[in-house]
Amino acid sequence: MDLFKSFSLGQIQVSASCLYQTNTTLVFGRETVLVCDPNWLPHEIDAILNRIHPFQETHAFYFLFTHADYDHIIGYGAMPPGQVVTSLAMQEEINPEKALDRVKEWDGQKYISRSYQHRFPKADHTVRYPGQVMNLGEFNVRGFPARGHTIDGAMYFIEEAKTLLMGDYLSPLEFPFIEDSWIAYQETLQNMKHLHTVLNWEISVPGHGPCYQDPSKLAERIKIDLDYLDKLGAMEAIESWVEVYPFALYLENEHHNNYRRYRMENKT
Q: Tell me: the pLDDT tens digits for 131-152?
């Protein structure tokens, strides 16, 4: 079964897991393979491995992580040797043991057995400031810290592939999930209003859901998500967001968690 159907254009291939439509992005170069957020179920990990296996003897591998949430690191233990790229905060702010405990807990609750041991990504390259350029094989990759959803978020722009990897921001499927900071989330989206217009991207990949090819669609999503954050203080009913977030009715707990985060940062 070919799971790489969500998006495929030349050297860029994106697969969406059947769980939360979580994206894994592969970028194939002449001598380099980039892998971002490998996930999720065992047969999906096998499909990723089958896709990259022909390149293991000839290409250098780099594994990019947008943050350390369990669904984004859960496939790393199966990956072949290679260098790791994360935000600096993912190395300094995240407890590896606790992150792996969450991964193992999820597997255990679902009775899932795997053919590999889970590993926490230990970085060879870290994103420390906006626009930082990293030379990963023949690819120049710009990194951007992105707080708000989590404290350790990062986005990546792969210049030669014209690909923007956004992590858990600006999904067409879900409203913002605030695990870190309402204020920082707004700052990240405000930065994206400018960033997505100056980067020469052709493919923009969210952590969950369909990719963007049309800049106007991404601009519209930025506006929608900022509007959601602006209106959190009014605590509008979740039903009012169904037209722009198709799964909103099933995410009411996250909506309430967002409101609590808003209130913590806006005490008057």
A: 999 999 999 999 999 999 999 9
